[in-house]
């Protein structure tokens, strides 16, 4: 048992060993993100994405694996199996399986999605929540399993661009009347990118533009507002 | 797979919505990261995950001793590493919050949300911080300004205690039709203000597990 009862020092750069080989680009960022800058680091989002299921075709026999995260296998050559992405990549790296690219990663499907994304100026097409991370990992580790890989890759990039342009347009519609924002079909990475800006912007509008709402809020939560306490120095974060 | 909870909870794919302890711990980590105040320590869950980690460590040792296939051992080791990473991340994000808001937590009912180990940690933190402040700054200040918690004796409240900013917007993730928000079966992100009624709804759904508080930014 590696975990001891005393706590390890904070701020020490922890690295997730499995992430290091998965994505060298993010190695240096694999530590815990600072919750006050951005909640999840790209590596942490990728950690979540690695639990998404994919189909593999193994080429060797392995007994059933009873893991903490679930039971997988037994694996028999040429018999497709469903496993989490991290397991698929681990087997793939050792040349023990082929990964079947998900259905939505075909040229036809992506063409449809791209056209639909371009046609509607507001709506986002439903794509897997982690489509950015999944495609990135597969392009990196399973190139030979993806038909028309370069075409697929450029289409995914186009889709990302079109969607992100829409996200930016959406951000422009924030006003001091905005109290809640609903974003449909936004993916994990896209949401992660706009998080700092959008919340801070809403917060600023909220603070400066609608004093009546602010005092109302203070009353509802039964907390003295800043003004009631007299002059107060803002404390610097420790 | 031992799973002590029958919660339904939000996941990316309903087909893989097996409520394994790993999934539950991931949710706990996500919510802990996204929420400004400290949440209740998931004691039974953490205990179960620890047990599973120990069990798998034993299994890996046994497989090694038996001279089993290296591939299988390394796959188990990866599963182990991932679970350890998740558990450490959960514990660490809580410690970060405790360090930041030690005094506030110790003075409010948030104290009950800490595990006994975290409480011990927080108590030590307070002592060390107090000693440090007194030695380095407060001892040299004029009388009336020596208090750790107050700016001066004139302050009625303890106005030098950092508190988590609760008056802020939060990002939530959900799907399905919930309360006043008409949602279909797609993935939704909502940005709602914490101090509005909306947030109480969020909190309720977060507790019953149908919503995941996935991100939030402290202004």
Automatic annotation (TrEMBL), chain A:
Compartments, as annotated in UniProt: Nucleus
Every DNA replication complex GINS protein PSF2 N-terminal domain range: 41-99
Gene Ontology biological-process entries: DNA replication; double-strand break repair via break-induced replication
Chain spans, region Disordered: 217-238
Domain GINS subunit: 104-202
Pfam families xrefs: PSF2_N, Sld5
SUPFAM superfamilies: GINS helical bundle-like (SSF158573), PriA/YqbF domain (SSF160059)
Cellular component GO terms, alphabetical: GINS complex
Keyword 4Fe-4S: no
Keyword Nucleus among UniProt keywords: yes
Entry keywords, A to Z: DNA replication, Nucleus
Main location: nucleus
Subunit structure: Component of the GINS complex.
Protein family (similarity comment): Belongs to the GINS2/PSF2 family.
Name by which UniProt lists this protein: DNA replication complex GINS protein PSF2
Originating organism: Amborella trichopoda
TrEMBL record, chain B:
An example Gene Ontology CC term for this record: GINS complex
UniProt main location, coarse: nucleus
Gene3D superfamilies: 1.20.58.1030
Source superkingdom: Eukaryota
Domain GINS subunit, residue spans: 69-136
Any GO BP annotation: DNA-templated DNA replication
CDD domains: GINS_A_Sld5 (cd11711)
UniProt keyword list: DNA replication, Nucleus
Compartments in which it is found: Nucleus
Keyword Nucleus: yes
The protein's name: GINS subunit domain-containing protein
Source species of the chain: Amborella trichopoda
